[in-house]
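pasting for ref
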Amino acid sequence: MTSARYPTFVDGTLHAPGAGAVSTDDQGFQLGLAVFDTLLHEDGCRYFEEAHLARLEAGARALGIAWPLRWDLPETLARYCEALGPRECALRITVTRGVPAHGATLVVGARDVVPPPPEGVVVAVERGAKVACDPLENVKSTNRLRNVLAREAAQRAGAWEALLASDEGDVLEGTVSNVWALVDGLVVTPPEERGALAGVMRGELLAELSDAGIAHRVARLELADLARAAEVWLSNTTGRVIPVVEVQGVAARLPGPRGELARDLARRMRQREARYRAARLGRR
């Protein structure tokens, strides 16, 4: 199926699909000095926009990208979504360091949302893929080479996603997701200090676990933990809660969407999104 094409916003101007231009002198193009974030636009709402923009700003500052930008980001997103009309999509914001002495470049685009398989996903493990405790691991930059190649290798091996393990052996995250496991009755997800990205959906799930009084811990997650986990799932902005049915070579016959906790959390996140949408649209 051919994906829909979307217009692109570049430095204050809305362009037809494929027509926007970024200078070849842009340091994002030349050196990868750029950050990005992806928001879900659905039911007329950009979910958890404030958290996404806060993470974008933190990443930009970490890479020496001048902040604040010349553009008001919430206003820009509102204009862009108005131009899109009632389309459900994933919005991508990219901010680069730009051409030297000319300031940052801002690009906003969109793509169709492709939901994960409803029957649950198989994941592979990419060992030694990340450097434990390296602060750059927490920046959502456009330098995605490792992630892209790891996921492509996983998909060639019949998996949907690759889990990235550190050079010290612990599992940190997926290439496009955060990872969770139910181990001995306790929900465990890796800490940012080890190199896990501060996923926005991860943050919402942690808040929901606390609100619901569900026992959880942000702690180092080993392959041995996955091997004995009762449930494993992933999370990201567009897929929300993504149940895992197998970790190749580590854990087979996981319950996937039949897992009671993953199913309950998926329901809770839908309710959390509904509350956010009602509050956001009520402020207009």
